[in-house]
Amino acid sequence: MNSAAQFRDDAKRLTHDLRHRELIQSALKKYEVARDAKKARYQDWESARVEASDIKWDAVNHLDAHLAEFARNAEAHGTKVHWASTGGQAREIILGIVREKNARSIIKSKVMTGEEIHLNEALEKADMSVVESDLGEYIVQLRHEAPYHFVFPAMHLTRGEISDLFERELGSAPTNDAGELTMIARRALRKKYITADIGISGANFAIAETGMVSITENEGNARLTCALPKVHIALMGIEKLLPKLEDLALFLPMLATAGAGQVLTGYNTMYGGPRQPGEADGPEEFHVVLLDNHRTRLLADAEQRDALQCIRCGACLNVCPIYKNVGGHTYGTTYQGPIGAVITPHLRGLQDWKHLSFASSLCGACTSACPVKIDLHHHLLQSRRNARGQKPLWWEKIAFKLFAVLANSPALWALAKPMARFGQIFHPLVKATRLDPAYVWTQSRELPKVAPQTFKEYWKGRNP
Amino acid sequence: MRVTLFIPCFVDMCFPRAGIAMVEILERLGHTVECPEEIACCGQPAFNSGYWPETRAVALPILQRLRNAEVVVIASGSCGAMVKNFYPELFKETEHAQAACDLASKTFEFSDFLVTKLGVTDLGARFPHKVTFHDGCHGLRELGIKKQPRTLLAHVRELELVEMTEAESCCGFGGTFSAKFPMISTAMGEVKCASARETGAEFIVSNDASCNMHIQGLLDRQGQPLKTIHLAEVLNTR
Ligand code: SF4
To answer: Among the listed ranges A274-283, A411-420, B33-42, B141-150, which one has the minimum average pLDDT value?
Structure first.
């Protein structure tokens, strides 16, 4: 099935699943309350957004220089920097390290770029055992499914469902207690950290002036993933760059507030290189893989380039009424929600993913929520224009051409009214059936009636 | 002032009362109202569907017809956003760019026109009902209109405004979106209707007739007694 048909089918199924809608919407309601409380602690949230957007805009527009500076500074501390133009290259680089180290087992903390390039599949094919250490990721891994939300991967599951899963997969006793569920996962994961040969992480930010990688998390799993195994690989998109260390003073709290309604994420760690002489712990090797995978294609699009400012906070998903009603899996993308609808056509092809830009009421809630002020819903409009400009639907094109003729001719427009009234007389015969020309509307809604006297008829009557 | 009223297609056809209320209010305030016969639709359906050249075919005659207008008042936040924000985008880098910007700068959504441009807040209306207000997305987020309609409602006698928690959430209409993805559109509308019902209001008031059309269509199908009404009609009561 193609991606558009899959989206449509899943959307249809999930919008009829009231339990699912209620689950997601009540979870996101709680998020909204927490977020608003934390936003209120900012002196001026709006100017923080402007500042963050300016910094990122500048970083994106000077990406070449920042990347070179980052690589230079990282290498100065013994970090090995790799450049990957494609997902395939990134997989090869990582597999190369794995082979060189004769690694057997790998522990990962949340790596969305890993999802993007299907890293787990590649590692498993090479006979690696791969374990996700982020609790949500671990849960979806046990269920053999994709993350539901790129910040909250398992938000579609109830505690009961997670308990059942753990009982089945880990043999634990059933419980409805969130703390106990976390402990069950922790016990299972602890062994893995110790035996893993390689830890793979993503990155939230990369600092050009210091060559450091910043990772934020709430569970402490990323710290173990990055510190215990002998080798740490951080895989990140090239857009993660921030020019200065001090920029984090703005971005770390904004990420936490916009994304999860927190003042600051639980753990905020900087990774500056492998273990240095005289240091007691840390990995022996630290690799950074910088991934393009069509991000430069987006960079070349002057209209939509600001989408590279994204800090993957997830705020746009959390407020999106489409996301709240169709859920994360329906998108079929690594990055769900509005940001996914904007960047996936660039990353994976416009014609295959244009349906995501049409699946929006263009309400703009995402754009208002985005901490770095990406013009998300207008980009959806531009993608629609680009898609139809390349490949119009012939019948739509004709329909809009005819409509232009109708709208531009007062005589025809006036004629349309009695015709519509006439049609309305017979409409009840077919209403809400497949024969109804307005079926897409009438299957769930009543049509408005053409008024006995339209406005223009009224106006004509007044000014004959 | 000479006010040119822009009556969008669906207001003309299905919701003339909102337009008539605007005419009566503006005339009562002492303005001369004109309503060009030639203008039928702002072209938003084609624009939002990605057919920009076809949209220009609808929009260009409007640019020309409204060139000499003093101010243009639009009876819908959504069409207002189209003319104010998207016409300049649509005609960018064409010979009509300036005309589009000129039109944008003299175009107002109705409630914004009353409060911001005219400084009128009390129209002497009386509407003895409990109501809740729905912010149309285009009015709210494209044009930044939030306070204006509430200021006007605050001066309506015997009206009780109860805000719903989902006031700023989309009703799910989204123009052609409602036909392309009817299931999502309907689900969004259901969230809206449920939130409005929770307030115990008798009416959902909005400054966007297109949202009202969608919400009313859902309420009628659900058999709900709740009614939608355009802000102008409330303001025109006595
Ligand atoms: S687009 Fe904005 S709101 Fe959405 S994830 Fe990225 S930074 Fe967050």
So the answer is: A411-420
C-alpha dist (Å) from residue A367 to A309, A376, A427, A455: 13, 5, 40, 35
Q: Which residues of A1-23 are buried (b: 16+ CB within 10 A; e: fewer)?
A: eebbeebbebbeebbeeeebbeb
Phi and psi based region of residue A93 (left: phi greater than 0; alpha: psi -120 to 50; beta: remaining): alpha
The answer to whether residue B125 sits within a structural domain is no
Contacts with B51 from chain A: Cβ below 8 Å: 388, 392, 396-397, 400
With beta carbons less than 8 A apart as the criterion, state whether A407 and B58 touch. yes
Flag whether pLDDT at A426 surpasses 80: no
Containing A33, the helix (H) or strand (E) segment is helix A18-39
pLDDT for A246 beyond 90: yes
The total number of structural domains in chain B stands at 2
Is B123 within a domain? no
| In chain A, where the domains are located | 1-41+313-342+349-391, 43-293, 424-462
The string over A353-386, giving b where at least 16 C-beta atoms fall within 10 Å of a residue's C-beta and e elsewhere, is bbbbbbbbbbbbbbbbbbbbbbbbbbbbbbbbbb
B122, part of any domain: no
The whole model's pTM is what?
0.95
Q: What is the pLDDT of residues B206-215, one digit of tens each?
A: 999 999 999 9
ipTM of model: 0.96
Distance between Cα A380 and ligand 1 center (Å): 14
Full residue range of the structural domain in which residue B54 is found: 2-117
Q: A residues 276-335 near B, CB within 8 Å?
A: 321-322, 324-326
Specify the DSSP element, H or E, that contains A237.
strand A231-237
pLDDT at B165 over 90: yes
Instruction: State the CB neighbour count (10 A cutoff) for residue B200.
Output: 11
Kindly state if the Cβ of A369 falls inside 6 Å of ligand 1: yes
Name, in order, each residue with C-beta under 8 angstroms of B108's C-beta and a sequence gap of 6 or more.
Answer: B71, B72, B73, B74, B80, B116, B117
Domain boundary among B117, B149, B181: B117
A372 CB near ligand 1 (under 6 Å): yes
Closest-lying ligand 1 atom to the alpha carbon of residue A337? 4
pLDDT at A54 > cutoff 90: yes
Share of chain A above pLDDT 90, in %: 86
